[in-house]
Amino acid sequence: MEISTRHAVVKNFLGHSPAWYKLAIIVFLLINPLVFFFISPFVAGWMLVVEFIFTLAMALKCYPLQPGGLLAIEAVIIGMTSPKQIGHEIANNLEVLLLLIFMVAGIYFMKQLLLFAFTKLLLNIRSKKMLALAFCLASAFLSAFLDALTVIAVVISVSVGFYAIYHRYLSSQNGNTDLSDDKFIDSEDKKQTLEQFRAFLRSLMMHAGVGTALGGVMTMVGEPQNLIIAKHVGWDFVTFFIRMSPVTIPVFLCGLLVCLLVEHFKLFGYGADLPERVRIVLEDYAKEAGEKRTRQEKAQLAVQALIGIWLIVALAFHLAEVGLIGLSVIILTTAFCGITEEHALGKAFEEALPFTALLTVFFSVVAVIVDQQLFTPFIQFVLQSSPTSQLSLFYLFNGLLSAVSDNVFVGTVYINEALAAFKNGLISQEQYEHLAVAINTGTNLPSVATPNGQAAFLFLLTSALSPLIRLSYGRMVLMALPYTIVMTLVGLLCVEFCLLPVTEYMVKIGLIV
After folding, report:
1. What is the DSSP string of 440-465?
2. Tens digit of pLDDT for each residue in 253-282?
3. Are 453 and 407 in contact (CB under 8 A)?
């Protein structure tokens, strides 16, 4: 029986999303103009931010690009922001977009090497606690020199590889190649093993994700906002690290302690071990792959290893923009690994481009925040407070706003306001530098609370891996909670009680000028 045109339109709208979700988006689109024109543009702006966060939270129901994009288009139509302002935000974040387009694709062509290296790591470290710590430490170290998105793209690629190996083993009897389809598994024992393997991968991904925040906050190249803050204050790489160390080093050590504790006591969804059945499959795969590896494939691994060294050196010394370095990785890996077909190149961009489009929509929401001055009350309140309480307030408000917005944007806004206050004689040079530390740590540490607070977390949430390992928005928030609480509180205590005396001591011994 053929359905009516109205039913066809409803059915097509947001595809297979639940009816209640479609209704919620329609209600948002109807209410926003009414609130904007008849109540308050400021209230409407905050409503839009909350609605966009809702679409992120429901990423497994519908990819956020479509509903979030509809909200952004409506915001432009009714005058919440303008295409010019959106273009300005995109231009300011062009480095991030280029990074996503080219670096993630570059990592795709190094998957062979990464899977080889991480398989060795996974199979040689038997203790789950030590393995979790290794993933967290490795991510933290790499994120201190590379961008967090690059690091998380590496770990995602590896995890998808692990999942694919075991899924292919399970589906080898019936020829099922769709990684998202496990309906063919008829044994309850096999289903439980797969669920345990998913929980194991989820915990490793979250430890790695938090590791990017722990390492990324330490150096001026760890996160985009770090570089902006360092340029404003005039700090080089070493000075930035030393200035941040009274806060970042205690937080780093406490973060590693949390990693061990949640694994040991199996809290907040952590503690799942690698199922022995899966370990056997991975060991067999590694052994078989090693035996079958040809000289040509060994040469490819060697080339990828050399390109990996080039990647780290180029990023650590900022030899070019991150996206351009990613493009060089694509060119080198494809040229020296025999990949010349256009369709083979195209596959590498499938993972990154949807998220690139989503991030562009996110910048549209940031444009609304700018045009409607949604953060202005918070900034004015903090700057009007006493110098002794400014540090803690800057840290807390940066953390709060970064958890619901873009931490690059929040960090940029606050460091500009602090610079303006310094130039107007409202704060001293010393206070300005202390505020820079509070702003940087505030945007990086409490923002692990939500996926939209950290670009690496948001990329993980919207990646092809998340539905495979059942990693939803809510589950990410829950698993990040122990880290959020400890990192936020330790960071706050260090900003409040350690920053000033430790910095004074560093000046006294001549470590900083």
Report:
1. HHHHHSGGGGSGGGSHHHHHHHTSSH
2. 999 999 999 999 999 999 999 999 999 988
3. yes
